[in-house]
């Protein structure tokens, strides 16, 4: 059974978790399918933005409980410690592939985003969520810790005390609280509609500038204690954009009051 669908139209890749009857819970097949979906877009120059969503009543309820049974008797170290996807294992790649993509990723969240599902959402650049959505760093409920890239992603988004409280307790929290903590970008009535509207706005911007902006933001976040390096990278990236075909088309389109056409 298909776990993920990928549809590309007008430079927007719509990636949908398609296990709606199971609240898009993560079993081994779905973990592989999500990682493969993200990786399939890595070298696609036609894609300018990605919209990530889940079908049905929930974005993602986290790890499928039945998967615990499948792991019984296996050596966890043999499964988790090998770096099978660059600097990550498969579990970590599922959220991190969206951060690694060179184009913006917008996540639409409804119902619940628990455990691994919450960490997948953290990998996106922007998160829109419905007002009644519930979220949780669920792993402590099962006597484990977040291990799908959450500890690499959360410190960029919220405070240490918030991370500690949510990790230690596994308590559910509202998206209103998530927005206050910086874990959700906006609370909206129609998350997928809001995600698509933003994607359409991004898709008509300079493709090279958008990719450069995502890479520059990532550089700034990972070098936040090295101001000299960030300032130099900012200048280097700008120098590569200025006067190039995409930038010249943006200028021409603005002066001629028309939509830009990028080649």
UniProtKB/TrEMBL annotation:
Gene3D superfamilies in alphabetical order: 2-enoyl-CoA Hydratase, Chain A, domain 1, Lyase 2-enoyl-coa Hydratase, Chain A, domain 2
NCBIfam families associated with the record: PRK07509.1
Record lineage: Bacteria, Pseudomonadati, Pseudomonadota, Alphaproteobacteria, Rhodobacterales
Keyword terms, alphabetized: Fatty acid metabolism, Isomerase, Lipid metabolism, Lyase
The enzyme's E.C. designation: 4.2.1.17
Protein name: Putative enoyl-CoA hydratase echA8
Annotated pathway: Lipid metabolism; fatty acid beta-oxidation
Family: Belongs to the enoyl-CoA hydratase/isomerase family.
Entry superkingdom: Bacteria
Pfam families, per database record: ECH_1 (PF00378)
Native organism: Shimia marina
Biological processes per GO annotation: fatty acid beta-oxidation
